Amino acid sequence: MTMLPLFDASIENVLLSSVSRYALDALIDPSQRRRQREAERRWILDRQQQQQGQDREVRYADQAVLANLGWGIDALEEAIQTGNVETKIARLDYAEKMLQVCALLDRGSDTAGISNAYLAASAHMNLALVWKLRSDDRRAAENLLEMFIAEPFQSRVDFAPGLWEALFQRHLTGISSWYSEQRAKLLAAPSSQDHATLGHGGDYSVDFPSYSRDDFFAVSTDEVALNNLLSAVTPEQAAQLQVLEELYQNTLDDHTRQYAKFYRDCLRLPSSQLKVVKPLLPTAEPPATDEVFQPLKAQLEVIQEHESDEERDGDNELVNDTETQLSFSRQIKDHKSSEDKKQPASATSSNGASLSRSSSFDKMSERSHEHAHPMSRSSSISAEFSRPGAQQKTSRSCSFNRSELDTSERSLERRSSLNHVEHLNSISRDGDIYDEERSVTSETDAYERRMVRPPKDFVCPITNQLFDDPVTLETGQTYERTAIREWLERGNTTCPITRQLLKNRALPSTNYVLKRLVENWKEIHGAGNSMESFYDENQELWQDLENEDALLRSSPSSVISSSSRQSQAHKKHMKGDASAVEGFMHELKPAVERLCVSEDLQECEQAVMTIAAVWEKCCGDFRVEASLTKASVIEGLVEVLSVSVAQEVQVAAARILSALVASDEFTRHTIVRADPELESIVRLLKNEVAQGAVLLHQLKLSANEMNALDIVADLVKILRKGLDGVQGQGDKLCSPKAAAVGLLQQLVSTSPERPHSSAHLLLALEAVPILIENLKAKDIDERLSTISVLLCCMEADGRCRNLISRTAQLGPVVEILVRGSGSARELATFFFLELAHSNRRETNNKVLTTVKNEGILSTMHVLFVACQKAPIEHKHTIAVLMLQLEILGQRRQQSIYKEEALDAIVAALSRESPFDCQVETAEALVALVGRFSYAGTPLTEAWLLKLAGLEQPYELLTNEDPQQEREAAEEKAANLWELNAARVFLEFEGGAILEALGAMLQSKNLELWKPCMIFAVWLSFVVKKLPSSGLRPYFRRYFLAPFVVALESAKNVQQKVLAALGLHTFLDDPESMQELIGYAKDVVKPLRQLKKVTWIAQEFSEAFIKCTSLNPMELWQHSEVGQLDVTRSGEVRCLARSKGRLFSGHSDGSIQVWETKKKVPTLLLVLTDHSKAVTSLALSSSSNRLYSASLDRTVRVWAISPESVLCMNVLDFKEAVGALAISGSTIVTATAQGNGIKVQAETNSSKQLNSGKHVQCLAVSNGNVYCGCTDTSIQEVDLEENSVVTIQPGTRSLLGKKPVYAIQIFKSEIFSAGAVVEGAAVKVWDQTDYSLKRSLPTNLEIRSIAVHDDFLYLGSSSGIIEVWLRERNTRVSVLNIGSKVNALLPDGDVVYSASEDGKIRIISF
Fold it and tell me: Is 1106 in contact with 1367 (CB distance < 8 Å)?
């Protein structure tokens, strides 16, 4: 992870991600929590025993604080274990309350002898888990950071060492480097004392070798190296090392606390402020050490003055110390096994003093493999200067902390696994070195004489040889100069071990400190530069140390700590006779030489075959492997692969490389470096050499590297061959077929740039049948890879699932489901869920039946147990499959499987679950309805929309189905499945699923809200088909309000229709209808917008209109929302509309064309062909022609196109035309002064009808013309038969004529309006029998009328517009525009009014 200089969103995300992962791991692993709890209890118990030993009284209040901590942790554990949501919430609240008591303690004091900082850190660690269970990662992170602030040492060593490494270690690398350098200086520098006088009586003086910093890092785990180092340091050096280590640990604590506070404060910053001001990360500076060691040097000088007086007692004390040491060693040997089993968290010194930080120290020791720097407060060296027999003398000379030293001593003993070592060398109070012959047993002496293994850091990781000219790179790794120079000369730019980019490629100067150490070691042990002789002579020893992993700790600068090929190679036992192997090596050496130097292809091929034969005979002997893992040999094998055409040679070379890659990481890097494009391996695949797939699979390439190879077709060929057996040493890990499937799995699942591209290619190559057959593979990993590939194929093209469902033998997959591990079972579960997405219910039932009945064990019981043990993010997947199996069988009122599955589903939908888990569960519920397209897409939403009248989505999803028309039996099976599924959900705990869905419908996230909405609407719709279950009140409580909100606020028409369908289910329930009336004002307008889309809107409208408890004035109040001012053209006489356009006729003879896409129309063009006022406008049935009548005695015919409106024809009349109507191609006109109506086509002659009447207005319907006359009469004229029927006879009035000004036909009703006649100005007639149905009691003189859906709009001569409910004589709105209304025109949700004042007003409700 790269450290950034600024705290920004990326660092915040990494921080939250790391903390979330740590907390989640802790929640998932109960054993980890149990071990941590037990360690804390032992630690606290030891401290309490210490207080009792000191006769210190423990107050009741202190005991209560400790009890609160225990109660809080117990409550947290109960919350983790329970599946009941309410119980979990309650236990988490209680846990938080109890833990806060310890979290808020004063960290500077103690409670019952226990540090408050320790208690606070423990409390914050558990509080982090509480907040993680509440899905609040930020609060969890804050608590974990508070843990590091409260007690950084315990936190990084005991509580959360892995999290400390992830968050803080990268910031403290400079501190670790400083510590290593300082320690190396202390060990390498000459002491202020004369080394020659340190031996007892001067008889044991030796020349002490200098040690590097790397030796000291390995001290605590390699006891022989420890003895060597102890024999080389002085008390002054030991004391300085202890002070250095204390300073180092304190520095780590201080900087850990510093960074933890910084992260915590940044997390508390508002996100808006963080975007503006990005805080700078603090820096970790190493401390200055010169001043630290000065007081210690002065103290040692004073001590040296008393040494001469004490020297005469040295011999006696030495004997006593030796006896005590031997006794102590025997105790270690006798009780070693019991000590290892007990692993005490703390210990007590011989004088009764309590041991400090023992638990942390022990755990630190156990984790020594994981840390690159020492984590203990006291050095292992310190322990060596504190043997029990010399306790008082050592404390006088070095002032060591007894408790820490004893703890280190015990921890060191537990770590050691060398059964032959019975004691350690002891050093007396004055630093004298004991003669090994006087202080160790003969068994130990023999062991140490055999133990001539060099320290690992003395060996180059590239050459496997002792260093001769070591150089240390900028990455901290050390190599032999010639080896690293060759590495760089080959074009490499990175460190071979760390893979970090080298900024400076010039080699540094020799590491003389390390060089001197290596030379001293060789002088002492008489070892040459070759490592081979060492391992040969100590083969038996290596067998004894084969399980010595705990002793192989690495230092910060170790070059082979992470991947030491030499240590792996020499841990292998030799197979076969040593002399035979020697002969094979003699045969191998010239073959290797020919391969590396020969330029003759045939010679190289023979060399490869020889090497292959030797390799097979030696069965991977480590010496043979060491000879072949050289870069030159690997490059030679790759070159032969690239050019050889002999298939047996290609197979042999590939087998050798496969085996080497499997056991040696260096081989993999060498192959990739030698052939970056991997052309040699791709060539093998092209030549159908199956071994190439094994080699490529073991190279473990990245996703981008794999996608660049273009080998899908070649891998399919290998699958067709079906090579399944082990054919050589290189195939032991997997067969060629298994390797091919594994590579295909990687290809189809890792292509972010081109998702599903490889899967589509597999489908095109017809590889699915081969993969189906491969489900029978014996190797379970191969089967799992096949399942993954098939899943990707189904995701790429769901149609292939039908082939899989029909032809696959699912028994082997069921075996994985029943017997597999957690991840394998999860994969098999996904596979079966996907297979059950067929568009045929019969096929789905067949798959589920196989899952339920196949196998020896009960699948339901296995899934039941797996569901209980699965982590929260995986429970719902198993639960959905288990629920489908339950629905498939005979329905039972009580079933533990059904209860467990539904409980897991409801829990997954709760707010405490992760968001992804909620979404996946909701989508699984939608799929559980059981309706799918041919491609496996759930049809639940499209099917519901089809029921609501919106059929297009359903048709789009089912048009690829070869059997689009569902058979009666199939439809019956689908309906039966739906009913059974609905029963299962509704019978669970009184409709608990309804409450969970209702909570999810409050979500603002569309990804979660939409599937929950679909499933809720489906449940609401299907429940009407079931017998009364008494759940209606729950549907109203949890669904009614969310449905209303969705109808009102959803921006998608389909979502609005779904909400309307859900609300429609409440119409037939009186109680629900009463509650729905309360939302009437909110839903009326969006329902009117859906009238053109779904029949549901009209039914709602009719229901509201019939409801007498509604106030119509409040519900359907209309208002003016806009106007167009066209007074320059005079009054607006008439209006017409067509395809998003509005046409207006004006008194100056112009026709203006408006675009109505926006809320307020915009003017497009003005037509000025008429010379006088335009009196009427009409459109043809196809709306592609406009007809205009004018007082200039003409009727013009206009062609309407998207770009223009052009005049096509002009019809002349003898008189001014007052009214106009169009019936097909027939033009019907009424003149302003003449009688009757004139009927004519555009080109034919005209005829006169109804000549006895003066016609004021016209309307056309079904080939008939309806005439409103000036004498209040209304006639129906049949244009075919030229007959006239009088609907309303005319009347004479002493006050003059009372004409019918407007007439409209709507849904078999005739609406007429004019002056008030017989107490009514508006009358409604039945179009079939001409009977008067009703009249509207208005006293206004109505000049225009518009009928639209539920409303009737009336425009009066006085400038008042009235709005009436069409089917009820109820006036709902009145608008006064102040000018005579000449025309009204409805258009969707708005009405346009044309007035005498030259304005067009827009009215809406």
Answer: no
